[in-house]
Structures are given as C-alpha cells and as structure tokens.
Amino acid sequence: MEWEPTWFRAMETDVMMCYKDKSYCVWAMRGICKNTTCERAFTQKDHEEATAWWATFGSPGGEHNYPVMIADLQTDTCGARIV
C-alpha cells in the first residue's frame, strides 16, 4: 500500500496548490505596472517555469492552464506606478 498522509486525504477537496505557493501582483500580470524589478511580477521566466512545473502533473486543462494566485498587491511603498 502506498503511503498517503491522513491530513491530505481529509482535506483533499479543500486543497488548492498554486505555482510557487505565492501571490503575484495583478497589475504586473496585466502588463500595466512600470515596476519591472518587483519580486511579485509574473515574468516570462515565471511563465516558462510554471508551464514546466504544471507538466509534471500532466498539464490538466492544458499546458498554459497552470494555477497562479494573483492579488492587488500595489501599496504606497512598493514603487509601482500604474500606467
């Protein structure tokens, strides 16, 4: 029998995984933030890595349908300037 943690079995329907388990800024993902050095910007490199990561799960829903968490992360001190 293959080992399966009981907490995973109990939460199976409530668990959501996302690429790198972090939130990316919605303004950067839409391409309308001028702050290109922000660590919360979803870059082309992130896209390529997320595609490869999603492929390890068989790419359900399509190779570019990987789950990514986005949020409005702009603050007064983040340096972002909405175009």
Please characterize this protein's 3D structure.
This protein is α+β, with helices and mostly antiparallel strands. The protein is built from three helices and two strands. It has a two-stranded parallel sheet. The N terminus is likely disordered.
Topology record:
Layout lengths: L5 H6 L11 E3 H4 L14 H12 L13 E3 L12
Parallel strand pairs: 1-2
Provide key terms for this protein.
83 residues; alpha+beta; two-stranded parallel sheet; 3 helices; 2 strands; elongated
Quick check: average pLDDT?
78
Order of helices and strands: HEHHE
How much strand content do the residues show? Answer: 5-15%
Query: Total strand count, please?
Result: 2
Strand arrangement within the widest β-sheet reads 1-2
Distance between the termini: 56 Å
Unreliable stretches (pLDDT < 50, length at least 5) are 1-11
**Helix-residue proportion:** 25-40%
